[in-house]
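Batch 3, record 17
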Amino acid sequence: MSRCLYPDLHTKLASLGLMAWLVWLLLYTAPVTAEDATADLTTAFELLKGRSFKDKGEAVDLIAQSGHERSKMILAALLASHLYKNKEDERIVIRETGKQYQDALSGELLEGVNKRKLKRITINNQLRGQIRDALATLDLASPEATVRLAAVKSMTGNVDEASQARFRASLAKEEDKRVKEALLTALAIAQLDAADPAIRLTAIEQVTGNLDPAIRAKLARLEQDSSQPAVAKAAKQALDGIEFKLQLYATFETLFFGLSLGSVLVLAAIGLAITFGVMGVINMAHGELIMLGAYTTYLMQQLMPGYDEVSLLLAIPAAFLVSGTAGIIIERTVIRFLYGRPLETLLATFGISLILQQLVRTLISPQNVPVSNPDWMSGTLEINSVLALTYNRLYIILFCLLVFTALSLVLKRTNLGLQVRAVSQNRAMARAMGVRSARVDALTFGLGSGIAGVAGVALSQLTNVGPNLGQSYIIDSFMVVVFGGVGNLWGTLVGGLSLGVANKVLEPWSGAVLAKILVLVFIILFIQKRPRGLFPQKGRAAGD
Amino acid sequence: MNPLSVLKNDRGGQIFLGLLLLVAVSVPILNLVVPEGHPLHLSTYTVTLTGKYLTYALLALAVDLVWGYLGILSLGHGAFFALGGYAMGMYLMRQIGDRGVYGNPELPDFMVFLNWQELPWFWHGFDQFWFAALMVMLVPGLLAFVFGWLAFRSRVTGVYLSIITQALTYALMLAFFRNEMGFGGNNGLTDFKDILGFDLQSDATRIGLFLASAIALALAYLACRYIVNSRLGRVAVAVRDAESRTRFIGYRVERVKLALFTFSAVLAGIAGALYVPQVGIINPGEFSPLNSIELVIWVAVGGRATLYGAVAGALMVNYGKTYFTAALPDMWLFALGGLFVLVTLFLPRGVTGLLRRKEATA
Amino acid sequence: MSALENFRETWRRDRVWDFMVSTSGMRLDISHGTILYLEGVSVSFDGFKAIDDLNLYIDAGELRCIIGPNGAGKTTMMDIITGKTRPDSGTAWFGQSIDLLRLSEPQIAELGIGRKFQKPTVFEQHSVFENLELAMAGDKRVWPTLRASLNGEQKDRIQEILETIGLQEHVQQRAGSLSHGQKQWLEIGMLLMQDPHLLLVDEPVAGMTHQEMDRTAELLTSLAGRHSVVVEHDMDFVRSIANKVTVLHQGSVLAEGSMDEVQNDPRVVEVYLG
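Prediction for the assembled complex:
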């Protein structure tokens, strides 16, 4: 059976005809509507000029129903007492901020308006209410979903009978999911106040599981109301259900924060896991390599002002290169001579970290430098009314997983990765097989340092960038590596993420600082039980 | 037994103690007897500075004992130093009495500032000198004992142990920075008035503290030299070089480590306690990991496993620091970092190693 | 042992906790003539069965050689005897009454089992004399060690051992600068300083010249009043010292007997040459 990709002649003609008719419709109906609307407005203005409030009420209705594009602005001006009649030319004018005046109908800016000739169009309270309702109704019918949503939300909690009817009408036509939900919520809240307990009970059923705080407040009040025990009981049940859901979401949120903190830890530590795992080298300058990556981001942003997204993306490979090169230099000049002496390496690299810090202080600045976030990093993803996940954290988690996967692939699939693993497991044997272990060492160190630089890019988006940035992360990185097991990427991942989550779980009842202390103590104790970490390297050659 | 017999084969130690004696005698004379304005007069500031250096030397001695002879690179010894310092600080705070800014005879100023009503339980007893002196030794010692017991029993060694000691001092730093802990928060303890009734600002007291530091250093040196010369010292070196072998021979390696580590912590605590009245302040910055690592480099520069090398290194590096931070402040960290790199690469036996090599070839 | 087993072990009412067992009351009982019993011992590492239902009996005063191909389990067997490794199953008795499986390494060393490793592990930075001094039997607790000094008797003993191993001229020399063979003898000397009842000597002549091997054979034979277990590949050396030979293969005993019997045993021939 062949599929006909091109319609045959009938269909072509039919669609052409349809399109033509639609165009005619648009062209001919639109201006007609516009003309009608203007006529309505003009009539309304005449009514406004008078003194009768009843007339003015009619005028408001007219304006509201006219469908004119400026109706909302005119009504808003009227509500705010910014609508005036110019006694000179009988025009209706709107006062803008800054004492500018514009013609109400056309919107053109008027010059040389004599303030004394302006008479304010007054309204009373009833009119005020009417105008508000009219505005809300206009908003309800707005083509923009966000405007409709805002309107519904603003009216939630004080929905009278008339509005309920209007809401129900809108509900029937509404297509946007969020607006629908908001309408249902508003209606349910209104019905919670119904006189008839049966209606109340139904309403409670409807709002079960709804996390809107207004509903919670209402339910709490109903629970206290002892005059209607059935209703009170139902309200309590609903509240319990909601409480449970809230707990669930709160746990999820803690988990989310924990994972994002953990991702930062993993990013910082994974480079260290490689250098320590493969080469047995404790690199105390690791934090500074992270810092160099963060500063690279800053410099990229300085080089390309205004192009935040691009500079951030370019900063990633740039930071990799900068820190990676720094790492290779450090390895070739210092670490190479200290193999087999881990404690000396620790001290020497500490010295290098001091030098790097001071370099940055003198060459750039001892103060923190500003690094801005691109737009797509800010903002939140709202799951529901109690759970909102910030985008920057989400991206960090994703970024961490990406880096981890990339690194695993490099180690597992590339030639370099193979050589790195060989050298880490049995250096002598690898050399006997022709692997140039010195070169592998330099490149491994470069790889680990490069990853640190990339971590620095991520960190620059989360925290202040200054010469001491490295110091805050070095101990944490070590803890992750020691906890997760040396020389094992999975160990670093699991270790880092679990430490992040543990930190966040402890925070609510112990405070951030104490949580950190507790985690440190826990690791110290954990090492007693499992001195080689969560996922130790197997085999007798490994650091026996 | 003549304590000085310990120095029989210790040429370096003899030289060192001789110099120390010279300094201990001349400094007070040059400060108190020689009139001001005379070129040889030593200002009280210099006296205090030298006293401070002597406490640093004591601290370095403690580190050399466990690092040079036992092979434990402790990157958290500053914590023991700081704990001893805080114990002394607490005593000095209580001595202020009602002469503080807020005039409260019971509560130190910072507690009044935090609206505390009464002294926390752990401050009780610190108005007595003997109690404070006991705590100076007990608190670091106890911490070292517990930590060591946990660490050595599980055979945590090498770099892992060093990192863990870093974490320990880091955690303590975080804890002591908190105001709620009751140790003065990030301002620490300061504004001391007198010690044992002697005004801390007076020249005589400063000389006294200086002499106390010198005596403590000398005694500690003799004690360490005694240990190192004894069979226990040889066992320690055996543990450093071949731990499993030593265990097989029948020595309780964990207990040897624990004993020496705890003793070293007590020495560090005493050093801290002598340091605080001379500089007049103790704050959580003393717990900083950087301090602990810097102190290791003093020992490395001087030459480990010599004892007198540690003292020499502490004096040299700190003198260098004072000079640099006054003359070229921006360069100090470069110099320090460079020192770390150079010493590990080119001077594995430190400065005294150079001298010994010269002596060997001579 | 798993956590549950550990827990159960802690609460047993018929035994004292391991760490409370003191060796002071323990005495080696060789009234039945056997000094070492290994029965049904098995141990696996990561799934690989290193020792498989091993049964071994060493008589008092005997000089036994244990031979076998690589991986037969000789070193692991020694690890079990000295307490470095715990078997998964089986029993190990020192004499009639001392259960080796409940003691720690230092305790086992104190009771008189000495081990010499394959690689010479003397204390390189110490002198020959200091090495022997460290290995000396005596109170090895911290405080006594601090206060200890050598009395005349102990100095004599060190001198005696020095003569036995033939290193009198090198008494003050740093052990690190000795030749390979000399390091091996020093290590045997250190073993002897502990005055052990049972000597485990793992490949004592590895890397030695023929003359050194001869000297070592003399040394070991002269020690036969004490009880030695020797592990060695080199057939010539084993021939020159052994009475009874045990052949290990894949973690258990393959054959036992005099050198000739074992050499002609078809199973041994197959394993070694097949």
